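seq:
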Amino acid sequence: MNTDPFARLCQSLDFPMTIVTAFDGHERSGCLVGFHTQCSIEPRRWIVCISKANHTCGVAARAEWLIAHLLRSDQHELAQLFGGVTADAIAPHEKFEACAWRPGPGGTPVLAGCDWVAGRVLERWDAGDHIAHLVEIAEYREEHAPAPQLGSASVRDIHPGHPAE
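struct:
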C-alpha cells in the first residue's frame, strides 16, 4: 500500500484518458495521455500534457497541430497500443500501421472511431515531468457511439513504455 497521501489521492481519481497524436511534417507519433482538459469555453482551448520521457513529446514540440482522441470504455485495446507500446520497442509509424486512421488538420493522424478535438498549438511550457501544450480548438468530431469514458482506473493494467518521471 502506498504511504504517500497525495499519491493515494491521485490513485483514487478516475481521470479520462485520451490518445494525443502529432505530426511535425516528417514524423507521426501518438501516446496515451491522462493529463488533459478543456480550459476555456470562449475561445475554445484545451491543455494537453505529454511526458518528457515519451517519444511523442519531441514530435509534439515541433508540431503545429495536436489532436486529442477522447477514449471510451470499449477502446482499451487502442489505449494499450498507444500507452503500452513505446518507440523504443517499435518504430512510431508501426503504431499507425496497427490501427485505422486518416490525415486530419495539418496532416495529424485522426484515429478511426474516436471522438476528437484538434487544435493549433498556441503555447508550450515546462510543467515538471511533462510539457504542457495549449491548443486552440479549430475542429472536433463525434465519431463514437455514446459510451462511458475510458478512465485511468480502467487502464492501470497497461504498463507504460517509460516510467513516469
